[in-house]
């Protein structure tokens, strides 16, 4: 067993300096996968020999001592199963798409390949990425590595479980209502959703209201910042971060901000332990010199967000025979989406954005719970019809989906554990376009919470 640093960037530095070989590193993580993946169901497609061949290639390239090596050269990762990865299936968590095979990389995999990552395979997601937990018809439920009686979250649940269980050091995810931040919070990780327009948007054909984003699930804010640079098209290592990069933003610490504390929601009661953790984090911000003011809850209903998600799900093209194989929740969502036009979805998104903007006011940032409660227990939603599953799971995203609709950048940080041992996440949100300032603020809070 290797004794590795917690940070993906620190591991990457060892590989770039050739103090650690990519093959040795990948064998270490593959051993971890062999021990725990059968129970957790994080990886749903694994290609060991292909990965080791990629690792050997990475070691060879680094032996030539390139002047400008890829930042994550030789590090393993996985790709969420709704993204295309060369010579892998793209099942999107669905029996209806179990036959879809990709001969090419999608946008996220291409960005990761340019950054030097070695690909182990595909990571679990909920069907068509619509639920905040992963329990679909093509593999066992994806469980939480901290408490295997609970879900790891969703829809990037495989990514959260894989990083949380140390199967890989970092992973990309996607977030259309909290799908990065929820599993990151449930698995004790950092998860970042970028501002609308801050990163390339690979889902434009389906997501006309632009509520979704790609982003990292990582162990540190610094790692998340470096991964955002990869997704933005900066795949190479530099001794000093480039001006304007996300990593450069991480290194700055903003001063004297007005921070709104948003601790309540009309959609869900906040667990007292979560509330205490968020208020403790808010007091840390005050100790750092920021001014924290409690805000009234943003008013809204689940039915206001459903049309945005439903239209996006409806935009996924499926042949008639495949539609019959969908899970009840997905069928209900697509039927609902048939009654919503793309123009209507965009208008609804704009109305929600205006409401969040009004609540944000002149604040520089917000602090909220990431999720109001602990991870649901495996099987908690069984026995419900399609609509019932979605409505019972929707409160998990009460504090995350708001900022998909509004387009603000948001990050979740680990903020302690409950008495039962499940992780608690705290969410920081910044003004649209202030992703780099948000990374600096998150880094300062991360340090204060240690």
Succession of helices and strands: HHEHEEEHEHEHEEHHEHEHHHHEHHEEH
Under the CATH scheme, the architecture is Alpha-Beta Complex
CATH class: Alpha Beta
Bin the strand percentage. 5-15%
What would the CATH topology be?
Amidase signature (AS) enzymes
Low-confidence stretches: none
Count of strand segments: 13
Number of domains: 1
Summarize the main sheet: 8 strands, mixed
Q: Look at the structure and give the mean pLDDT.
A: 97
Oligomer status: single chain
Structural shape: globular
The CATH superfamily bears the name Amidase signature (AS) domain
- Report the helical percentage: 25-40%
| Helical/strand content category | alpha+beta
Strand and helix layout:
Layout: H1 8-16, H2 22-40, E1 43-46, H3 48-63, E2 76-80, E3 88-89, E4 101-102, H4 107-114, E5 118-123, H5 157-164, E6 171-175, H6 181-186, E7 190-193, E8 213-218, H7 221-232, H8 246-251, E9 258-261, H9 272-287, E10 291-294, H10 302-314, H11 320-323, H12 328-337, H13 342-360, E11 365-369, H14 386-393, H15 401-406, E12 410-417, E13 423-430, H16 435-449
Parallel strand pairs: 2-5, 9-10, 9-11
Antiparallel strand pairs: 1-5, 3-4, 6-8, 7-8, 7-12, 11-13, 12-13
């Amino acid at each position: 067993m290797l004794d590795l640093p917690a940070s993906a960037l620190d591991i990457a530095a060892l590989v770039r300096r050739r103090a650690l070989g990519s093959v040795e590193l990948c064998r270490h993580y593959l051993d971890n996968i062999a021990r725990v993946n059968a129970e957790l169901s994080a990886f749903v497609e694994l290609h060991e020999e292909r990965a080791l061949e990629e690792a050997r290639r990475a070691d060879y390239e680094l032996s030539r001592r390139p002047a400008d090596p890829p930042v994550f050269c030789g590090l393993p990762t996985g790709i969420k199963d709704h993204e295309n990865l060369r010579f892998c299936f793209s099942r999107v968590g669905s029996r209806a798409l179990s036959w879809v095979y990709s001969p090419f990389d999608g946008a996220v995999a291409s960005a990761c390949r340019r950054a030097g990552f070695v690909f182990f395979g595909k990571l679990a997601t909920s069907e068509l990425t619509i639920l905040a937990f992963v329990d679909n018809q093509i593999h066992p439920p994806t469980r939480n590595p901290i408490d295997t009686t609970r879900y790891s979250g969703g829809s990037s649940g495989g990514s959260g479980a894989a990083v949380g269980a140390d199967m890989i050091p970092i992973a990309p995810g996607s977030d259309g209502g909290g799908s990065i931040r929820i599993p990151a919070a449930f698995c004790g990780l950092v998860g970042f959703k970028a501002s609308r327009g801050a990163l390339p948007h690979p889902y434009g054909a389906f997501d006309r209201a632009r509520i979704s984003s790609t982003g990292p699930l990582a162990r540190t804010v610094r790692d998340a910042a470096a991964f955002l640079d990869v997704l933005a098209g900066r795949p190479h290592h530099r001794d000093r971060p480039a001006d304007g990069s996300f990593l450069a933003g991480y290194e700055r610490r903003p001063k004297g901000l007005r921070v709104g504390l948003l601790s309540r929601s009309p959609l869900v009661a906040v667990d007292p332990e979560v509330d205490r953790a968020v208020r403790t984090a808010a007091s840390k911000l005050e100790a750092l010199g920021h001014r924290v003011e409690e805000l009234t809850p943003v008013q809204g209903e689940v039915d206001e967000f459903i049309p945005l998600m439903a239209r996006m799900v409806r935009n996924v093209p499926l042949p008639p025979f495949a539609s019959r194989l969908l899970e009840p929740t997905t069928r209900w969502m697509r039927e609902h989406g048939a009654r919503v036009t793309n123009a209507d979805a965009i208008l609804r998104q704009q109305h929600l954005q205006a409401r969040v903007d009004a609540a944000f006011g002149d604040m520089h940032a917000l602090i909220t719970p990431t999720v109001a409660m602990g991870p649901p227990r495996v099987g908690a939603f069984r026995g419900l019809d399609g609509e019932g599953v979605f409505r019972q799971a929707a409160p998990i995203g009460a504090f995350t989906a708001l900022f998909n609709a509004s387009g603000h950048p948001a990050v979740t940080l680990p903020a302690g554990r409950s008495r039962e041992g499940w992780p608690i996440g705290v969410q920081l949100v910044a003004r649209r376009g202030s992703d780099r300032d948000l990374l600096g603020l998150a880094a300062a809070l991360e340090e204060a919470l240690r």
